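Structure ticket #2291
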Amino acid sequence: MSATTIIDTAPLGALIRYTDGSPKPPARFTKKLAAWERSNGIGRLVKKEPPRPYPTWTAPASFTLHEGNFSSDGVILVTIMRSHSADSALTFDVVEVPQPGQVKILLDFGGATELLHLAANETAAELWIAREGYRNARLEPAGASDDGRAGEANLAA
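Resolution: structure written out below.
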């Protein structure tokens, strides 16, 4: 499916695979393999953004995938995020959606909603918030508002 379809239909927290359709090169070709890995991978959908108008042009809608973390001794040193615009030539597939019972920890800012963490249940989500210290985060059960609208923040009262 296209990037636009992901923006329109995939819920935050979904696992998304992307590819350019080319076969994976052998490991001995390290530069070719590194280039292939930039266009073929998997990540969790953490943010959708609507088109952004600027004085001379309009940036297309986009979404961001969390691809992983590099850590040492339990401390995250680097977080790998990759953004794709609606006009991306890559092919995308929804591999997995959040399961009922899971809880999304969301943060609203700048007109967009970002997934901070996908917890197994509400107790785990509350413990995660207490440990990480996000005061403005909100909890949302998986499937509660998975209508897929890009960048719309449903602000809690």
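Closing remark: The mean pLDDT is 87.
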